[in-house]
Design brief:
Elements: E1 2-3, E2 9-10, E3 30-36, E4 45-51, H1 69-82, E5 85-91, H2 93-99, H3 101-115, E6 122-126, E7 138-141, H4 149-172, H5 178-181, H6 187-196
Parallel strand pairs: 3-6, 6-7
Antiparallel strand pairs: 1-2, 3-4, 4-5
Helix pairs in contact: 1-4, 2-3
Length: 217
């Protein structure tokens, strides 16, 4: 709480959720595309493409970063059931090291689009740039996952699929706490790298520690 002049208490206003837009081009089959895991030290980058049906509504749907784990897990089966088409693809850490993380993110999105069972007429890409491997027209949307339903839905699928994958990797290498940090550069993750070395799932092109240790697995 904050005090105003005169001693009156001013209560902070809760940030209002903006209403997501159902489309960018009305009457056009649009696929929203987003990725997850770009800033991680380990594991693949995931991307999803989602085509929602006309008139799709869901009050909970939002940018996956604004949702709790429980909310994302509740939305995932709804999106997968109600979408006209959806697809999730990934690019593994070895390929990220070969092509760099930006190109890997584009590659994952392209693979997801190519996997769709319905061919979209237009793509809505989260972010400010894209390198297409398809001939479909596209529009880049900065912070699009908080503006358009289809991109928000893609962000939820990419995030939940990747989180689930990292939890599986955690069972193989529990020392890195991937069940909690999902491969992101937390202090706990960096400390584990310093103590245990680098696993086969770490991105060697990223700065993992001050000294790049390596163990053979």
């Amino acid at each position: 709480m904050q005090k105003k002049a005169g001693g009156k208490v001013k209560h902070p206003q809760k940030k209002r959720k903006l209403k997501l837009l159902p489309f960018f081009n009305e009457g056009v089959v649009e696929a929203g595309c987003d990725e997850a895991g770009r800033g991680c030290l380990a594991g693949p980058v995931f991307a999803a493409a989602v085509i929602l049906p006309p008139g799709f509504k869901n009050k909970l749907l939002n940018d996956s970063k604004q949702l709790t784990k429980e909310e994302r897990n509740k939305l995932r089966p709804l999106i997968e059931k109600e979408a006209l088409a959806w697809a999730v693809e990934m690019v593994a850490n070895e390929e990220i090291d070969r092509v760099n993380i930006l190109n890997a993110s584009f590659l994952a999105m392209n693979r997801a689009v190519q996997k769709l069972k319905v061919v979209p007429e237009h793509l809505l890409i989260d972010g400010h740039m894209f390198r297409p491997q398809v001939t479909i027209p596209y529009t880049c949307m900065i912070k699009g996952d908080g503006r358009f339903m289809s991109i928000a839905a893609a962000s939820v699928l990419a995030k939940t699929w990747r989180d689930e994958f990292m939890e599986l990797l955690h069972s193989e290498f529990p020392a890195y706490h991937w069940d909690k940090n999902k491969g992101y550069p937390t202090w706990q993750h960096r400390e584990a790298i310093s103590l245990c070395g680098i696993s086969k799932y770490h991105r060697l092109s990223f700065k993992l520690t001050d000294m790049q240790l390596e163990l053979e697995f």
